[in-house]
Design a protein that fits this description.
heterodimer; A: Rossmann fold; Nucleotidyltransferase, domain 5; 4 domains; 6-stranded mixed sheet; 27 strands; 27% strand; B: alpha/beta; Arginase, Chain A; 16 strands
């Protein structure tokens, strides 16, 4: 049996699966100030009366790291950055103890300016004096050559408890994002580690010793040890739980829009032939742009509990939520109240009369009957969602490409299916079907499908390999890998090498070696010509374990 | 957080699968390290910098500028439709006001492509700036435009296309044609009889460094632009004046390029040449982008840059100062020069040989322009190349007066069909392109 647990903003969904069969589900209120208690309460609710030995794994999606960032409660850490020529690295300051130091590497990873040991040692002394226990080091082009970051880390290590190096978090080029990513990992680390140590201990006391996985925003998961090394890879994992929950219902072929309609927001994502689209670089969480791998999602402020208003004669819905729907005793009219008025209410104890009373002033301001106003609210909410989806697809289709072939042959995606999950999914599905020419369906167990997705998500990871036959070396700094290669090293060799690194990494993160779908995301090779001589080849291969669902008996 | 002071649009199209030939300077690898640097610097994440996917240009866009022999398909590859399209995309973004400035980092380049195209010369098949400019004229009704070509090679194709156009100021700064391809771009090349002075050539001596370039911009280009008052400034931003460029002899640095960009305040820049793909392009492109966006580039420098090693000699400085006086004198005397040009024998005729180095084609042209004070003048060109048969091209400019329109049509209608393989009429007043085959 597998447990899936998804901590949301207002409540936490927990499910228990036997194979793919949902055998139990529970909902507990989320206490954002005590996520540990929330998590334990959720787990207690689901395992009551179950033999702990029968549980094979638990996958958790938490908002711990997300909340720390959003509420600006990150502890102070030291960031040390070697920029070299380009934009002044002081522009990328992440926090108070942010130091820019000498040292630089060029785009092929060649050292062009050495580090200054004394400079780093005195920073170490300062951090120690201030009682700062964690530090992050980042150098430009460290994903081509990690030597400078490693040396920076070695020089700082005597003064702090742990040093995080930028090249360990992503193989992608983007120095400012690498700085932000390293900072977030470093700052989230102590709280994340303490939290999950406590979770493990608490579960052990209940006799639960199954492997625990943490969900990532790319729709995959990792084991606790990996999560401690990459704690920021848990930020904004929520939307990916829903997307993974929709996958099993998605069509094998075609473009499917996934809508998770919640109380406050609607999150949208895109599946192509059952595989989720990834964000080009990584998550963005104000004010940070990162290299934390994530599914491409878009969120708009419209949901079942969004506040409905009439402003200057115009109907508006959201983007805020003030409380529950009036049907449940809330303070302001909402789309949920419109459902009650239209006789489509959930039938779970809501009071249609309160909804009707709540919508009356709206109807009056619009010069409509209450029923007409309710229908207008409903249609307008659906239209807003469809417009936002269209905008998202437009952005995807206008993503730049860099080869003649891709541009000339460039396929444009068009949504053929819509899958909906979340509380008000069935109501929205009926209405959306009247406005959309493709197929609209509700994900089975739509109110807990996110927790199911969480439970069944596969372990994912990504590897970027860089080979330069002129320098005679293949490197993948994020995997701590560097190997000599012969002059005749080919793209096939590079792909095989990347595949090998990817498998090792995935297994280390907890993947099942027999259930791992890998794919090449990007690959290219260039003849390097100096003068009129070909001196070697420059190759780049980016591979991933595809986000997807595990096989279960 | 970095915030661009000027909203800046970029099209980045490195054509990673296109080359003239495997070891040619214009090959797949050319913008690889530039892309690495642009990505690593995080330039595309900066608030106020936007990346656009290039549109393709249409055949109409190409035929608004060129006479392609026998037709555009014969002289263009997919990549040319995209690189010209990239320039057009940026042009539209600027004209629509979505961004204040734009830079098309695209390849292949275009500034050696002339009005008539038989093939590839100087790595160029079609003139991507001209295609963008004429699209802008058509779609947005812009009249006065200036092109400042800062590629190390004389922009002879752009010069050819705008030779007779008094509404397009073409200024080219380049390494002296006595020492570099294409061997043209001398001071005395200053435009045809209807546009004397609106072609300005500034041939700089080899080993000119930042100091000399920036002097030329400040003391020659800017005063001329001030007087011409263009509605739009286009920079043909070649990057082969760099001290490390393998096929030229100049000493400009990445910071120098950035400074030049700041001074010029071009609305649109389009990449042209530049073949120091590792040592220069990553830094020069970063510098140009930062400068266009109004961001600080004080930390930008090539790893191996030593200003002292590339300082220009006193003789060079002195030469450039004298050159500046001559350039400005000629510019200020353009009305008197017009009278003297028109009083020469057959001022309306021009016979030339044009060599296509990349494709090894020899072309002979005989050109007739209707001398006119009301418009750019109807233009008739007979062209023959050592590939294929002679053609006749007739161009009626966009603002053509009635007499020039009539002249153009007469040339087209009365041309002897048996003498030419193809006869083309580019009537810009109606934006129509007509071609007639040999009888």
């Amino acid at each position: 049996m597998i447990i899936g647990l998804d901590v949301g903003g207002t409540h936490t969904d927990v499910i228990l699966l036997d194979g793919r069969k949902l055998i139990r589900e529970a909902k507990v209120a989320t206490d954002p100030d005590n996520l540990f208690e929330t998590l334990i309460a959720g787990l207690n609710a689901i395992i009551e009366g179950i033999d702990p030995a029968a549980i094979q794994r638990a996958v958790l999606s938490t908002t711990l790291a997300t909340n720390l960032v959003a509420q600006q409660k990150l502890p102070e850490v030291g960031m040390v950055v070697a920029g070299g020529p380009g934009i002044d690295p002081r522009h990328f300051r992440t926090n108070e103890f942010y130091y820019t130091v000498d040292g630089a590497q060029d785009h092929r990873g060649r050292e062009i300016k050495t580090l200054d040991d004394n400079q780093l040692q005195s920073i170490g002394e300062e951090l120690q004096r201030r009682g700062i226990r964690y530090a992050g080091v980042v150098s430009k082009f460290s994903v081509r050559n990690s030597a400078q970051e490693e040396k920076m880390a070695a020089l700082l290590q005597p003064y702090v408890e742990r040093v995080f190096m930028g090249h360990c978090f992503s193989g992608s080029l983007n120095f400012p994002r690498r700085i932000a990513t390293t900072y977030l990992n470093c700052a989230v680390y102590p709280i994340h580690k303490k939290f999950f140590t406590a979770v493990q201990e608490s579960l052990a006391q209940k006799g639960l010793t199954m492997p625990i996985r943490i969900l990532r925003p790319d729709g995959g998961n990792m084991n606790i040890q990996s999560s401690v090394d990459h704690p920021a890879q848990t930020i904004l994992s929520g939307p990916s739980a829903s997307v993974m929950g929709a996958i099993s219902s998605a069509p094998a072929e075609g473009t499917c829009l996934v809508l998770d309609i919640g109380g406050t927001t609607t999150d949208m994502a895109v599946l192509i032939d059952k595989a989720p689209l990834l964000a080009p670089l990584g998550i963005e969480i104000t004010p940070y742009k990162t290299l934390i791998r994530a599914l491409l999602t878009h969120s708009i402020g419209i949901g079942g509990d969004s506040v409905v208003r009439v402003q200057d004669g115009e109907l508006t819905i959201g983007p805020d939520r003030i409380g529950k729907a009036m049907a449940y005793g809330g303070p302001e009219p909402t789309p949920t109240d419109a459902f009650y008025v239209l006789g489509k209410g959930g039938g779970d104890g809501g009071d249609a009369a309160k909804s009707r009373a709540g919508l009356a002033p709206i109807a009056e301001a619009l010069g409509l009957s209450v029923e007409e106003a309710a229908q207008r609210i409903f249609t307008s909410a659906c239209q807003t969602i469809l417009d936002a989806a269209e905008e998202m697809i437009k952005t995807i289709n206008s993503k730049p490409v860099y080869t003649v072939h891709e541009l000339w042959e460039g396929s444009q995606i068009r949504v053929s299916h819509i899958l909906i999950l979340g509380g008000p999914a069935p109501q929205f599905a009926n209405e959306l079907q009247t406005m959309f020419s493709g197929e609209v369906a509700v994900v089975p167990h739509h109110h807990v499908a996110n927790a199911i997705g969480c439970a069944l998500a596969r372990t994912t990871c990504e590897v970027i390999l860089f080979a330069d036959t002129d320098q005679g070396r293949a490197t993948s700094p994020s995997e701590n890998f560097s190997q000599k290669i012969p002059y005749n090293f080919s793209l096939d060799d590079a792909r095989a090498m990347a595949q090998d690194l990817l498998r090792k990494k995935a297994i280390q993160r907890g993947a099942n070696p027999n259930d791992m779908q890998t794919e090449v995301l990007e690959e290219s090779q260039f003849n390097m010509v100096r003068g009129f001589q070909t001196v070697g080849k420059n190759m780049r291969v980016r591979m991933q374990v595809k986000p997807g669902l595990i096989r279960v008996r | 957080m970095l915030q661009a002071k000027k909203k800046t649009g970029l099209v980045f199209f490195p054509a990673f699968d296109w080359a003239i030939s495997p070891t040619h300077p214009e090959r797949e690898e050319r913008l690889l390290y530039t892309q690495d640097q642009v990505f690593e610097e995080g330039l595309l994440d900066i608030d106020g910098i936007y990346e656009y996917k290039p549109d393709l240009v249409t055949i109409n866009d190409v035929q608004r500028v060129h006479f392609c022999v026998p037709d555009p398909w014969a002289v263009m590859t997919e990549s040319h439709f995209i690189s010209a399209g990239g320039a057009k995309t940026i042009g539209m973004a600027v004209m629509d006001g979505t961004v204040e400035r734009g830079f098309a980092i695209v390849r292949p380049p275009g500034h050696h492509a002339c009005r008539i195209v038989h093939g590839c010369r100087g790595f160029c098949n079609v003139n991507i700036e001209a295609i963008m400019i004429e699209y802008i004229r058509r779609a947005y009704g812009v009249k006065r435009i200036a092109i400042v070509d800062t590629d190390c090679h004389h922009g002879d194709g752009s010069q050819d296309i705008y030779w007779h156009d008094p509404n397009t100021l073409f200024i080219s700064l380049h390494q002296d044609g006595r020492t570099l391809y294409p061997g043209s771009g001398f001071l005395k090349e200053r435009g045809g009889p209807n546009a004397v002075g609106t072609t300005v050539n500034i041939p700089l001596p080899p080993n000119t460094s930042d100091e000399g370039f920036l002097y030329a911009i400040r003391e020659m280009v800017l005063p001329i632009l001030d007087e011409f008052k263009p509605e739009l400034i286009i920079n043909s931003a070649g990057q082969d004046n760099h001290y490390s460029d393998p096929i030229t002899n100049m000493n400009l640095s990445a910071r120098g390029y950035a400074e030049l960009t700041t001074l010029l305040k071009a609305d649109i820049a389009v990449l042209e040449g530049g073949y120091a793909i590792e040592g220069a392009l990553p830094y020069v492109n970063t510098g140009i982008i930062l400068a266009m966006a109004g961001l600080d580039y004080d930390h930008l420098s090539e790893p191996d840059y030593d200003p002292a090693a590339y300082r220009q000699s006193r003789e060079t400085t002195e030469y450039i100062h004298q050159l500046g006086e001559r350039v400005l004198e000629q510019w200020h005397n353009r009305e008197a020069l017009t009278r003297s040009v028109r009083s020469m024998d057959n001022p309306d005729q021009r016979t030339r040989n044009i060599y296509y180095d990349t494709d090894n084609i020899q072309e002979q042209q005989h050109e007739t322009i209707r001398i006119c004070d009301d418009c750019g003048g109807a233009l008739r060109i007979e062209s023959s190349a050592n590939r294929g048969q002679p053609i006749l091209a007739v161009h009626i400019p966009v603002d053509a007066c009635a007499a020039c329109q009539e002249q153009g049509h007469r040339w087209f209608d009365t041309a002897r069909r048996d003498q030419f393989a193809n006869i083309y009429l580019q009537d810009r007043t109606t934006d129509r392109y007509t071609s007639a085959n040999k009888k």
